[in-house]
Each structure stands twice: as C-alpha cells, then as structure tokens.
Amino acid sequence: MKSGRFGVVAGLAVALALAACSSSEDSGAESSAESTSASTESPSADVADAVTPVVGHVLDDPVPVATTDGTTHLVYELEVTNVLPQDVTIDSVKAEADGKSLLTLSAADLINWTSMFGTAKPGTTMGPGESGRVWMDVSIAKGESVPTQVQNSLTVTLSTPMLPLLPATVVTPLPPMTVSGSAIKIAPPMQGAGWVDANGCCTVTPHRHAVNPIDGSFWVAERFAIDWVQVDAQGKLFNGDRAKLESYPYFGTDIQAVANGKVVAVLDGLPEQVPGASPTGLPLDEYAGNHVVQDLGNGHYALYAHLKTGSVKVEAGDELSAGQVLGNLGNSGNTDAPHLHFHVMAGPDPLRANGLPYEFDSFELTGRLASLGAVDELATTGGPAPMQSAVSTGTKTDELPMFLDVVTFPS
Ligand SMILES: [Zn+2]
Q1: Residue 305 CA to ligand 1 centre (angstroms)
Q2: N or C of the chain: less Cβ packing under 10 Å?
C-alpha cells in the first residue's frame, strides 16, 4: 500500500544558544536607548515570561471529525526545536483546554508518536539544535464539547541545567492552537462490502508519517488518507499468486465521485506496478500514479490515486456529479498492492497541500481487523486475517472510518 513516505530531513544547521540581551552591540545609540527603556519597565504582574529550551508550533490547526469509535478527533502535528547547545529530552506532551486535560503522551507513548529529524535513533532526546515532530490524536467523548482553543505543552529535561534561567525540568507551552470548521460530508468513492481501511485515521500510519518537505515547507496532505482494499466473503484479499494483478478480485472496481464538482487535474498512462513490492526511483509527480483531483468546493479537493492504467474517464474541467464513475481501482504509482488511495486536502496538488477531514454520509461498519499485523498478514498471505471482537458494528452516518475498519458502502 502506498506509503508516500520520505526520509526525515537530516542535518539541520541550527546552533542556537541562549544569550543575554546585548543591544549595545547592535545598531547604535537610538536602539540601545529604546531597549534600555523597555528592559527597565516592570513586567506585567500577571504575565510570567520564561525562557524555554524548546520552541514549537502546530503545523496546521485541526478541524474536528467524527469517527467510528463514537468520538470526535482532533488530529494534528507539533513541530518542536531544541534551541540549546545540549541534549534535551521530551518527558511528556499534554493537550489541555478550559483547564481540562485532553491528552497526555508519556515518555513511553512518545516512542511511537515522536520522530526526530536529525537521527534515526528511537527515543525522544533532541540533540543540540535538533528538531522533531510529535503526532497528536485527541479524542473527545460524545456529549463533551469540542474546544475552540487548545493549549499544547511539553515537559522536557535538560542534560545540564542552566540556572537560574533553566532548571533541570521545564514545562514549555506552545502557542495556543485554534480548533474550527467542520468535516466535509461526502459519499463513499465505491460500492459494496468488505472494504478495509488501511492506513487511515488516526494512529501513526505511513500516511500520518508522510509530512513532506516540498518547496520549503512541510505539508500533511495524507493526514486523513485511506488506502482502500477489499476482502471477499471469506476474508481473502487475493487468491493465488500475490504478484499478479488478476489475483485481486477487486482490481478494476469502479471509482466514483464523492460529491459534485469540477475535475482540476488528471494523470493517466502510468503503468501498473507488480504487487508485493514497493517501486523505487519514482519522480515526485508519479507517487499518486494515475489519478484524478476534484474540486469539491469551499477549499476542499479530493484525490483518487493509483487508478488502473487507461481507466480514467474524465478530463480536467469536467463537472462531475456525485456517484459518477471517474476511473477504476488500480496499482499505479507508489503502491505495492491494488488499492484506492483517497484523501481530501486544502489545495489541488496531491502532496503540496494539508489534509482535511471528511465524513461519509452513510455506510455500515461490519468489523475491524485485529491489528496492524493483521493488515500485514492480508498483504502477504492474502488472509483471512484475525478480527477484533466487541466492535460496535452497524449503520454509521456522517463519520470517518478508522484504521482497520471493514465497511460496506451502499450500492
Ligand atoms: Zn495511501
């Protein structure tokens, strides 16, 4: 299944050190006088400015989305940088709103939810000047109000305290995060039973890992992307030779527009990949394979990717109706088994955009695979794979399927 993953950015040449305000070395008497004046004023009594060993921000403010676990999720990423010339370790990360805790990631949790840019080592220690990323997934129970502002903070430990400015352990608040908007409501991109949500929301999957550095910025186009594969009535993904497209009964399934809207980009003619291995050496514009991008309105764009070679039935500029067939499920681009990669994003470029949440208007949740290992089992042996018990199955309205869900879409 498509990973779309890039390596982390290595070798950030940041070498910051805390320094006292040294305006006298700056640009002369005028600015020096201003600085002196400012520094001698008493700080406001209710503001406790503090030096922080880490700075950071939210990569893109989240839009809440209802999911099949019966909760509302806030899905976002924190970019953090150690500004000290020494190691700093993240002990925990918290999200709070209105004085209530929404999420706490412990040091053990953070092993899976954190990645440092400069090193491949596991763990949450940032070297001098090193940056990293924390993936966040806040889940809000039904009946609880969704906050409009969230305070994220990190508790970090310095390898060498720098008293009196920095003790050994420092709580570092990040700038407040705004929560606004609502998920777009759309129809499913195909029909029928047995569709498995691989790499979907909200845990850390290859899609959430795909925070791509493009044109000088990070983009999280695949934040809510789902790789859709289909199992048959026996729970099998393929029968026979894993490396043959014809072993996958759902290869060639009709893919339909999820809403009314104009086609803004089309690519077709790229070859099918051989299932069972990811291709290497693809140029960036071939990662999505044969694909269609559709403008859904209000700044939402849908990507239908990895379509079957020669199957795309629409052209840029075509006005599509919801349910209209636009192509067929295939295995082109960065993919190791036939699937539809689908996501909604805030711009027309498949990778140079931030992902937006979406909710399917109606579908039936019929089961849930047991684990990530079950997905691997499907992909390697064809299955059937173990399923979870005690899943709240049934008809779902205006919800986003979650990673491992097995669903039936209306015919
Ligand atoms: Zn994908």
Answers
A1: 8
A2: C
Query: How large is the C-alpha radius of gyration of the chain?
Result: 24
Task: Quickly state the pLDDT bin for 56 (edges 50, 70, 90).
Answer: very high
Of 202, 79, 164, the closest CA to residue 93 belongs to: 79
Give the tens place of pLDDT for each residue, 20-46. Answer: 333 333 333 333 333 333 334 444 444
Q: Is the confidence at residue 1, as pLDDT, over 60?
A: no
Q: How far is the centre of ligand 1, averaged over its atoms, from the C-alpha of 143 (Å)?
A: 32
Q: What is the CATH number of domain 184-409?
A: 2.70.70.10
Domain limits, the chain: 23-35+50-178, 184-409
Ligand 1 mean position, distance from CA 227 (Å): 5
Cα–ligand 1 centroid distance for 113 (angstroms): 19
- The span from the CA of 90 to the CA of 114, in Å, is 10
Backbone angles phi, psi at 133, to 5 degrees: -135, 140
pLDDT grade for 48, boundaries at 50, 70 and 90: low
Partnered with residue 219 across adjacent β-strands are 212
Calculate how far, in angstroms, residue 284's C-alpha sits from the geometric centre of ligand 1.
Answer: 14
The C-alpha atoms of residue 320 and residue 302 are separated, in whole angstroms, by 12
Q: Is the pLDDT of residue 17 over 60?
A: no
Single-letter residue type at 268? D
CATH number of 23-35+50-178, picked from 2.60.40, 3.40.50, 2.40.50, 2.40.30:
2.60.40
